[in-house]
Specification:
The chain is an alpha+beta fold and 214 residues long. Helix 1 (2-16) packs antiparallel against helix 2 and helix 2 (28-55) packs parallel to helix 5. It is 40% helix and 11% strand.
Length: 214
């Protein structure tokens, strides 16, 4: 349900870009850009979670690669598909998004007190940093090779993970409909692994406290 709502919001925000300039309120474009950044990152994370579920099912025995002996960082590179401790992969992804794009700072901040120009400037920084992380960890490409608005037919044997059907589905498949979002897919997963599992009783630091020594 959250994925459907996010995809619907992204589609509606994209449609706003086709409105004539004279009817668009001042500052709407910058606010729309910031919202699209957050929705894009959320949908990319959901796509990653689905991929992890397919690559590393819960019943499989996970084999983790040993961490390098000498490294000051809390993470180490792992081979694609390598599982980590429970929740460690999600924690390290958030850590990377925060380190490179200040993602957590952006979504945790109350932006209602800032002007559209300030939000737009912050959105650009967040977008560039988070995009760099996604490009390094995933080889993202549209799941649908065509364009939004294409009419396609979903056969009964189609992969249920590839399509999310919307609307009234009273009849039996195949279903004919219009693509409202092309979806995402990836052929590469190189997310670093966390060196320790999540501790339910601990703090589980996502981003360290920055201290300037004077």
């Amino acid at each position: 349900m959250p994925n459907f709502v996010a995809a619907l919001c992204a589609a509606l925000l994209s449609l706003l870009g086709f409105l004539p300039r004279e009817v668009v309120p001042a500052g709407l474009d910058t606010a729309r850009s910031g919202a699209l950044v957050v929705l894009t990152i959320f949908l990319a994370w959901q796509a990653y979670v689905l991929l992890r579920q397919r690559v590393s099912p819960p019943s499989a025995t996970a084999q983790t690669a040993p961490a390098p002996a000498a490294t000051p960082r809390p993470v180490a590179a792992a081979a694609p598909g390598t599982a980590s401790g429970a929740g460690g992969d999600a924690l390290i992804l958030l850590s990377l998004l925060q380190e490179r794009g200040r993602f957590l700072d952006f979504v945790a901040e109350d932006i209602s007190a800032y002007g559209d120009a300030q939000v737009a400037a912050a959105s650009r920084v967040v977008h560039q940093g988070c995009k760099a992380v996604i490009d390094e960890c995933l080889a993202l490409a549209p799941a649908h090779a065509g364009a939004e608005g294409d009419r396609i037919t979903v056969d009964p044997a189609a992969d249920p993970n590839r399509y999310r059907l919307q609307g009234k589905l009273a009849q039996q498949p195949p279903y004919s409909g219009v693509v409202v979002h092309r979806g995402w897919k990836t052929t590469r997963l190189t997310l670093p692994r966390h060196t320790r599992p999540i501790d339910p009783a601990g703090e589980n630091i996502v981003a360290p406290i920055d201290v300037e020594v004077r």
